[in-house]
Specification:
single chain; 5-stranded parallel sheet; globular; 8 strands; alpha/beta; 3-stranded antiparallel sheet; binds 2'-deoxycytidine-5'-monophosphate; 219 residues
Length: 219
């Protein structure tokens, strides 16, 4: 029987680091749903489409094919219409385009159907905002990952600095708060902690400590 782990939480709380590591340790498939919304955001930017324009987005959705694949080292790659865009979607602009366009019903319908299909009959670890509440409501383990705003902003700031992006902690913090607000206040499948989710606050923990904690407590 397949085992499903659903991991939700706000941006930069450590969801994908945990999901990736658990999938590796347990031999499960890792499904990064944020990357799929980012692929749509990237398409909209590349094609000069306003990511607030629901009608226009609906009219191009059929032209957008998002797929996930894994290389020999089991690293996840995201493909947009057959092209590997994995290293192009981790920017602030693509994140914003993903957060705004993910509010629209047809965008969510398309990606949720794909996410459920990818998870079919497989043991997997899926991270996002609505995994336990909507995509995989029967998941065997539901984790809700949080960290203080300041800690998340610092982590994001260091990641951006490493990529050579010129920014400040204050700017990153403001962007994070704006995105969290939008992701948790939208009408359709907003970020929520379901009743049977276990909350883990990673503020004072290293990435390895979080993985060890989950493995020891649940496996
Ligand atoms: O996790 P991330 O930062 O890569 O996600 C980018 C955006 O995609 C996020 O701000 C909101 C949206 N998203 C969503 O609506 N539902 C999900 N399951 C995952 C992401």
């Amino acid at each position: 029987m397949s085992y499903k782990i659903a991991i939700d939480g706000p941006s930069s709380a450590g969801k994908s680091t945990l999901a990736k590591a658990l999938a590796r340790e347990l031999g499960y498939v890792y499904i990064d749903t944020g990357a799929m919304y980012r692929a749509i955001g990237y398409y909209l930017i590349e094609n000069g489409i306003d990511f607030h324009d629901e009608e226009k987005i609906n009219s191009v959705l059929d032209k957008i094919d998002v797929t996930l694949d894994y290389d020999k080292e089991n690293n996840l790659h995201v493909y947009l219409n057959g092209k590997d865009i994995s290293d192009k979607i981790r920017t602030q602009t693509v994140g914003e385009a993903a957060s705004v366009s993910s509010q629209f019903a047809k965008v969510r319908e398309k990606l949720v159907a794909l996410q459920r299909k990818l998870a079919e009959e497989k043991s997997c670890c899926m991270d996002g905002r609505d995994i336990a509440s909507n995509v995989l409501p029967n998941a065997n383990l539901k984790l809700y990952i949080v960290a203080s705003d300041e800690c998340r902003a610092k982590r994001r700031y260091l990641e951006e600095k490493e990529k050579g992006i010129d920014t400040t902690i204050e700017k990153v913090l403001a962007e994070l708060r704006e995105r969290d607000y939008r992701d948790s206040h939208r009408e359709l499948n907003p970020l929520t902690k379901v009743k049977d989710a276990i909350e883990i606050d990673t503020t004072e923990m290293t990435a390895d400590e979080v993985v060890d904690y989950v493995l020891q407590r649940f496996f």
